[in-house]
Write a structure and sequence with these properties.
Length: 665
């Protein structure tokens, strides 16, 4: 279990869980990790026998049905699918089924709309990367460099979010493992004099970040695209098995789906501390003998647990410290449970939870949700628009639900990471079979996730303050309850696999942009394969290391970053790619207008949201529609207008991509 109260110097563990479960889970998880490195080593052997660039970044365009389908699905099922998405389900309830519903048609839109044509054009031009395709299709180095800049800009944000997700997942799995706790204590002492590494950074999180980061950077750098594909296949299988195992466990331990829905209908949202002020004041019964630390996840009650009166119940959301000799700490950030059934459930298992005793609570200054607590909004967790801490309209009004339907279905088509996969499949038959395979796979992943984490609201109440950790927390809790702690390693491997499969793809996407699109295509076209190989390894390593360093102090909300990046990439790339594949009249100026117009409009709505709503991740919504709708619409319009106002492209360029038959198709 988490540390509750510790000295700032030594951080001794005061509360420990039974180590049998965590140790067994760690062993099974380590077996999975070793398998990843074995696949990377086998992949590296392929690099010695084939063209390095094509093999390292594109797998020599030879992916079959299962490899193509599972690497496509695993890359799309990122850390957002197994950390951010469960967090949203847990926080807002059943409405998330509508939010994610369109993901079932993503493969039809993405693979069916642009898959075959993109693969043809990439083969004809010999393109290895997405900027390669754009540059060669329009014969414009400037447009290619613009595409590189946007990819690096957006993917850098997403890499940091994914590193955070992987570290949180690993941290939850390792809680209670003696070796992990002692190593984290040693790391805390080692970095105590380094402000960037010690100020506000949990040593457990930092240790997990280092382990996750080094592992994924090494195997991606060493193995290249085929390492990514083969591990994606394994990770895709692990993900669906993990979800299928968790589903019956969650339903049974929540008392059945009917009982879960009835309990959720009674739930009201928690009250929470405002970011800039507020919270509660804690007063110890006697002065602290030494510096004491109250960790995130600690439960606090204002009455003795044995009291017959239902007490006020709080859960700490940000660590606080009480200096030696002091008795009071102000503005401790907490959430307060407001549903009687949730309070009763936590108190009944007080022996398994981290409760802080010997304190009294005063100066309670908390905020209620903007939507979900009023009597007229009862049942907000089971009906739309769902509870929301900030919006009086709820989490998902109908107009926003429509926006998200288009966002998942259409933005998936505009993701460069998906486009790279579409450039790598073997033939048309592979593409056709993969569309059905991925659609079925997504159905087996996403709908069960909605059920599992609605059950999590009943099983593990009070985790809104750290909801990004709900997936691994549920995995550990469900398996320990049935006496199979070792199974947690496999279940936690599911979200961990999702993050790894996304990180490795993004690493290759960014490194290929630097090495292929910047260095080879613009600086040194005659670079030897040895030089390209060395730079590819170096770029992958440097990009991964930089993302890991930034993730030491990451942004708070993973899913918000993923939504911003996904919608921004779609607004920037979908129109230029669709025009490039299907419109003979479009020229470089039109593609540039589409790219800049989509990016600019999308960014403008987020910047406007920062000034109007006080947060970059609360964008301005024109006519209540998400920025992706405005960005996509503006991108297509800008591209069309600029194309019509400028000269047609050279006929030889049009003939090359629209009339020449693809050999072997």
């Amino acid at each position: 279990m988490k540390v509750l109260l510790a000295t700032s110097q030594s951080l001794p563990l005061l509360f420990a869980a039974d180590e049998t479960g965590p140790d067994a889970a760690l062993i099974s998880f380590m077996i999975y990790t070793v398998a990843v490195f074995v696949l990377a080593a086998l992949s590296n052997q392929l690099l010695k026998s084939k063209s390095f660039l094509s093999e390292y970044f594109l797998g020599s365009r030879g992916l079959g049905v299962w490899a193509f389908a599972l690497t496509f699905a695993a890359t799309s099922s990122s850390g957002g699918s197994f950390t951010g998405f469960p967090s949203k389900i847990y926080s807002h309830g059943w409405i998330l089924a509508l939010w994610i519903g369109s993901y079932m048609v993503v493969p039809i839109c993405t693979m069916g709309l642009i898959g075959k044509r993109l693969n043809q054009i990439a083969r004809r031009s010999g393109s290895i990367t997405v900027p390669d395709v754009i540059r060669d299709r329009f014969h414009s180095p400037i447009l290619g460099l613009m595409a590189v800049s946007l990819i690096v800009f957006f993917m850098s944000f997403n890499l940091v979010a994914q590193f955070k997700a992987g570290s949180l997942i690993l941290q939850t799995l390792l809680d209670g493992v003696a070796v992990f706790e002692s190593t984290a204590d040693g790391l805390a002492q080692a970095v105590s004099g380094i402000p960037f590494l010690s100020d506000g950074v949990s040593p457990e999180y930092l240790l997990c970040l280092l382990v996750f980061g080094i592992a994924v950077i090494v195997y991606t750098t060493y193995g290249g695209f085929h390492a990514v594909v083969w591990t994606d296949v394994m990770q895709g299988i692990v993900m669906v098995i993990g979800v299928i195992i968790m589903l019956p466990l969650a339903i049974s331990q929540a008392g059945g789906l009917e009982n879960t829905t009835k309990l959720m209908a009674k739930m009201t949202p928690p009250r929470y501390s405002a970011a800039d002020k507020g919270g509660i004041t804690l007063t110890l019964d006697k002065p602290a003998a030494e510096d004491m630390r109250i960790e995130v996840g600690t439960w606090i009650t204002d009455k003795p647990i044995e009291s017959s009166k239902v007490p006020l119940l709080f859960r700490v959301t940000a660590a606080s410290e009480i200096p030696a000799g002091k008795t009071t700490v102000d503005e401790v950030k907490v959430i307060q449970l407001t549903t009687l059934e949730d309070i009763d459930r936590i108190l009944k298992r007080k022996e398994q939870e981290n409760f802080l005793s010997g304190v009294s609570v005063s100066n309670i200054d908390l905020v209620q949700y903007a939507y979900g607590e009023e009597a007229s909004q009862q049942g907000a967790y089971v009906v739309g628009p769902g509870p929301s801490p900030a919006s009086n309209n709820g989490f998902l009004p109908l107009s926003l639900a429509i926006s998200f339907f288009f966002m998942w279905a259409i933005s998936g088509t505009g993701q460069p990471a998906n486009m790279v996969r579409l450039m790598a499949f073997r033939d048309t038959k592979t593409l056709q079979r993969s569309i059905c395979t991925v659609a079925i796979y997504y159905t087996l992943i996403y709908f069960p996730l909605v059920v599992i984490f609605c059950c999590a609201r009943v099983i593990l109440p009070g985790m809104e303050g750290e909801s990004d950790r709900i997936m691994p927390a549920m995995a550990v809790y469900l398996t320990e309850n049935i006496g199979m702690g070792w199974l947690a390693g496999l279940l936690v491997a599911a979200p961990f696999a999702a993050v790894m499969s996304t990180v490795d793809s993004f690493l290759l996407l960014i490194s290929s942009a630097w090495v292929r699109d910047v260095y080879q295509r613009n600086i040194n076209p005659e670079a030897s394969e040895k030089t390209i190989k060395m730079l590819s390894y170096l770029a992958t390593f440097v990009v991964g290391t930089a993302a890991m360093i930034v993730a030491i102090n990451p942004p708070q909300f993973l899913q918000d970053i993923i939504v911003y990046v996904g919608s921004g990439l779609a607004a920037s790339f979908l129109a230029p790619i669709v025009y490039a594949l299907y419109w003979r009249r479009v020229n470089a100026a039109g593609a540039m207008g589409a790219m800049v117009g989509g990016f600019g409009l999308h960014l403008a709505m987020y910047v406007t949201g920062y000034f109007e709503n006080g947060s970059f991740f609360k964008p301005y919504q024109l006519f209540d529609f998400d920025p992706i709708i405005v960005g996509l619409f503006g991108s297509f319009i800008c591209g069309f207008i600029v194309t019509k106002l400028t000269a047609p492209p050279p006929q030889e360029l049009v003939h090359k991509f629209f009339y020449k038959e693809k050999a072997g198709s």
